């Protein structure tokens, strides 16, 4: 049965819950399994840095979906407005920002050199995230657009409408601005995005075909369409 979650802007108190959701959701990915740190705490720290970055990036919008009755956090999405001429954002850049600003004390902040030094395959990680950034700039150039940097839901609510609501939240703003939208889709998420009008513009094959990532673009619609 489809859920009707409540959506709201995230607060810093949601960071750890969002990081845990992303950590669990992406753990089965061949990419993540290949590059993730051996230590569970460090892997979670990377996701915490990525989520934390939303509160240091002026054009980032972190929205959470929660159960209306219990208040349980079910998922979240990070939408970023990229201004004309701006450098394109991405997960790796967010991790760098979040790693430097993700805590209130020196002990809580995790330096990115320390985090990247614990990644399972740093060379591949740099290649993968570098390719993401290159493809993003290749297809979007420096024109203004909305970017769905990250979306994640709990396993038990997948296919029940939470992800759809989080995508709709962003697309209301995309269409209100008459803007184009961009994202990178996993094999599991591609179908959802295609239903909202995103089109595959490239296929990036990794790990001898074990993982195929698809940059996707949604053309701008006139305001009110």
TrEMBL record:
InterPro entries according to UniProt: Acyl_CoA_acyltransferase, GNAT_dom, Trichothecene_AcTrans
Stated name of the protein: Acyl-CoA N-acyltransferase
N-acetyltransferase domain ranges (all copies): 33-221
Domain of life: Eukaryota
Pfam families attached to this UniProt entry: Acetyltransf_1
Molecular functions per Gene Ontology: acyltransferase activity, transferring groups other than amino-acyl groups
Organism: Chaetomium fimeti
